[in-house]
């Protein structure tokens, strides 16, 4: 039937990214949510876990073992890092027809040694690791279309890769000069109860975390090095801000002889015609609130006072373009749907 909708399963639907997937998929014209899973919340309804879903008829949350994948077309994995490898390996062994978009970090790194370095254990599905497409649509669109397994990039890395890779590919910036100063909202830490995430521990302040050791560095190293054609190890420092959503990255670069205006021209040309990546007029600074709730990326380029030095600023909603929105965008490519299907939300302002 031409009008038959694709059957979708969301594994890990009781977390923030799982809930965001459900929010986006409910308005998607070409899919039907056929299964939702949870661990501790299994047996509950989505409305019991997230009351905003009370008006909608949704499958009850069940354990992964209870799902019949024979009728599922695509699976979103919004599971913790380290657990997804075995789940997806088993899924493919028993259901070869299924497509997967994985929102964990388990398949983002191509080098098994790099994975073991950053995540502390050997990869448990090396063959799948080799075939996974890195799900940054605007960079790897053609590879994603042909993939059965897509590794959704991290939120910090999506924000930092999109504005920098075109500049490295063009040889317009010095690879050794890149400094990524990135800030994230609270939802990036997940929904599990943590003392350090209490309101009184986080509000009215800001702090850096995982300085010099954040796992997203592996993705930045991989993608920057590929774009530059040689090893690149940028400085990357994430910070936690007392806001619910958003990633805001100020990226400091040195040109290879050109001006900041040249960097703006490269990015404007590279992303011309893209639905979700918007390069603002030269000198204009984006704000995180201007992309909140949307799948959009805003990029600004500003000249520094020192000739040849520039600040490239990039911002996204960490739960949408940084996670679930990008995952839906990847699904659209894999399934042959219009790339913006289910993702036409305008940012919430204020």
Q: How confident overall, as mean pLDDT?
A: 94
The fold-level CATH name of the largest domain is Dihydrodipicolinate Reductase, domain 2
Oligomerization category of the chains in this entry: single chain
How far apart are the first and last residues' alpha carbons, in Å?
A: 43 Å
Proportion of residues in extended strands: 15-25%
Element order: H for helix, E for strand:
EHEHEEHEHHEHEHEHEHEEHEEEH
Q: Main sheet: which strands, in order across?
A: 3-2-1-4-5-7-6
Spell out the CATH superfamily of the largest domain: Dihydrodipicolinate Reductase, domain 2
- Major sheet details: 7 strands, parallel
Count the strands? 14
In words, what does this structure look like?
- The chain is built from eleven helices and 14 strands.
- The model has no long low-confidence stretch (mean pLDDT 94).
- The strands form two sheets. Strands 3-2-1-4-5-7-6 form a seven-stranded parallel β-sheet, with helices on one face. It has a seven-stranded mixed β-sheet with strand order 9-10-8-11-14-13-12.
- The longest helix has 16 residues.
- The protein folds into two domains: 126 residues, Rossmann fold, CATH 3.40.50.720; 163 residues, 2-Layer Sandwich (Dihydrodipicolinate Reductase, domain 2).
- The chain has 350 residues and is an alpha/beta fold.
- 31% of the residues lie in helices and 19% in strands.
- Strand 13 and strand 14 form a beta hairpin.
């Amino acid at each position: 039937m031409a009008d038959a909708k694709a059957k979708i399963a969301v594994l890990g639907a009781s977390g923030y990214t799982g809930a965001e997937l459900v929010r986006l998929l409910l308005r998607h014209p070409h899919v039907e949510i056929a299964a939702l899973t949870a661990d501790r919340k299994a047996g509950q309804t989505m409305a019991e876990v997230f009351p905003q879903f009370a008006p909608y008829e949704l499958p009850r949350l069940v354990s992964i073992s209870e799902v019949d994948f024979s009728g599922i077309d695509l699976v979103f994995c919004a599971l913790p890092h380290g657990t997804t490898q075995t789940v997806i390996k088993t899924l493919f062994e028993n259901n070869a027809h299924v497509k997967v978009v994985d929102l964990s970090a388990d398949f983002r790194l191509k080098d098994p040694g790099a994975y073991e370095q950053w995540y502390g254990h050997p990869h448990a599905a090396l063959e799948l690791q080799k075939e996974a497409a890195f799900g940054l649509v605007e960079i790897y669109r053609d590879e994603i279309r042909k993939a059965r397994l897509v590794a959704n990039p991290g939120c910090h890395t999506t924000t930092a890769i999109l504005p920098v890779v075109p500049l490295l590919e063009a040889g317009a910036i010095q690879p050794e000069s890149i400094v990524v100063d990135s800030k994230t909202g609270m939802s990036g830490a997940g929904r599990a109860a943590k003392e350090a995430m209490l309101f009184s521990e986080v509000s009215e302040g800001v702090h850096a975390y995982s300085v010099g050791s954040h796992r997203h560095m592996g993705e930045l190293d991989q993608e920057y090095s590929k774009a530059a054609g040689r090893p690149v190890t940028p400085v990357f420092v994430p910070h936690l801000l007392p806001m619910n959503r958003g990633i805001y990255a100020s990226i400091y670069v040195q040109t290879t002889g050109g001006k900041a205006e040249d960097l703006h021209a490269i990015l404007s040309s590279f992303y011309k015609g893209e639905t979700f990546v918007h390069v603002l007029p030269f000198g204009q600074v984006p704000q995180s609130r201007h992309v909140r709730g949307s799948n959009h990326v805003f990029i600004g380029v500003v000249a520094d006072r020192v000739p040849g030095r520039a600040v490239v600023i990039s911002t996204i909603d960490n739960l949408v373009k940084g996670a679930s929105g990008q995952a839906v965008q990847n699904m659209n490519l894999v399934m042959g749907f219009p790339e913006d299907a289910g993702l036409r939300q305008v940012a919430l302002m204020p």
